[in-house]
Amino acid sequence: MSIGLGDDKFSGVDYNTERHFNRIVLEYGERIYRTVRGMVGTHEDADDIVQETFLKAYKNIDSYRGEADIGTWLTRIALNLTYSRSRRKKLFSDNPVEDYMEKISSDTVLPEVAAEEKERRMIVENALKTLPEKQRAVFVLRLYEEMKFSEIAALMGTTESASRANFHQAMTKLKKFVSDKKLK
User: Fold this and answer.
1) CATH 1.10.10.10 in the chain, residue ranges
2) How far is Cα 22 from Cα 42, in angstroms, rounded to an integer?
């Protein structure tokens, strides 16, 4: 099957072969990992889900209809696997965004600034844990993956307005959580 990926470098490529499918893994592996890591607790859980995502995609590549970008299709598989696992086992961690926040503060040298950053990280981590799965997913996809609302809607099987609403509800809840924490 020839898959159009919305990108000329992939058009006309047959991904039924392992060699060609590796191009998908190389192109989208890091993006899928970042998305999953933003949703789950540990590096190991994220790695397992990413591996399972690509295995499932490889086995079911013939079911890819080409209606959406293949990256969107892969992310949908990854989110479904994440939701499925979270129902079976409590995957959502005490610190799901720690890696993201560490990247932001990695240049911090002063101890007092580092302490403030650590406190902010903890507040964000705790706030994200309070969000429902859909709001958390939309938040992670919008802010960390910088996806457009239309892409998020296609990925999550909702409307663009529903994606916007989930994002704004998440932001409202996060702002309230942060402001409540600052008052205490």
Assistant:
1) 98-183
2) 25
